[in-house]
Amino acid sequence: MFNLDFEPMPDTLFRSSFVPIFDALRIARSAFSPGFTFRDKDLVKDGDDAFGLVISGSRSLDITHQGRDLSLGLGDATLMHISATGSVGSRQNFGYIGMMIPHSEFEIRGARPDDTVMRRLPRRSEALQLLRSYVRSLERRRLGASAEVREAIRRHIVDLVALAITTHGAMGESSLSAVADARLSAALGHIAQSFDEPGLTVAVVARDQGISTRYLQRLIETTGTSFTARVSELRLQRAFTLLTEARDGACRISDIALQVGFSDISHFNRLFRTRFGDTPSGILGRGRRT
Predict the structure, then answer these.
(1) The pLDDT of residue 289 is above 60
(2) What is the rounded average pLDDT of the residues 132-154?
(3) Hey, what domains does the chain have and what are their CATH numbers?
(4) With 138 labelled, which of 30, 153, 201, 223 sits at a CA distance of 20 to 30 A?
(5) Which residues contact residue 165 at a Cβ distance below 8 angstroms, ignoring those fewer than 6 apart?
(6) What pLDDT is recorded for position 251?
(7) Distance (Å, rounded) from C-alpha 186 to C-alpha 130?
(8) Close Cβ partners of 284 (under 8 Å, ≥ 6 residues apart)
């Protein structure tokens, strides 16, 4: 995907992992033992004129490119021109996410990537945060999507990269589809990780995203459901799993309800019966009999 070579540090055992994320833009997560990935004069003869965005997955990532040296911290990024020689690595174990953006894509968006090559893009940049979150959401998906959906994903990623290299302030509640989709992905990821917290509210997630509650509600509603319904469904599904896996008499329904985020046991019982057509005690009894 990247047409790279690797030079290990002396007296080290070579190890690596490579996880493709989105092949349309050659996005992948890589990890290596101490050493440096590089493109030399022979490798750049392949004619690839794309720009490579490198997002550091390490506390320290050293880059040499176009006569300059740059050190990135965890979550920082920079742009490299694939047609020029360069190296990325560390004297410690290291990793990064790489993605290849064709030069023509930047031209369409009026961005000037040459001005950003080997400039540190800080992890606190909101556009970069949205891009990282969007890529993480792609890693969680199984991309068997239609050609139209994949093309939308490709456009969104390129838009977010263009924003990351040109925008330095807050994104706010942008109407740009790439920003809205990235914010939605980030919010859904937050919900999936925190649905069992009793204090999780749409206001909490919106505050984490730096957007208004109403804006987030509108984003979630584009998925065909509401914030409350999504959280309740995740909690109920988790409760159902815990109840069916319970094998001993020490398990109490109230404990499971609290564990998945419900603070009102009566409310939990009503929702559960409506969702699954049986009471929590009925499901619990089935699990103990099997």
Answers:
(1) no
(2) 82
(3) 5-123 (2.60.120.10), 228-289 (1.10.10.60)
(4) 201
(5) 79, 111, 113, 116, 119, 121
(6) 75
(7) 7
(8) 243, 246, 251, 253
Its pTM stands at 0.79
Q: Note the Cα 232 to chain centre separation in Å.
A: 23
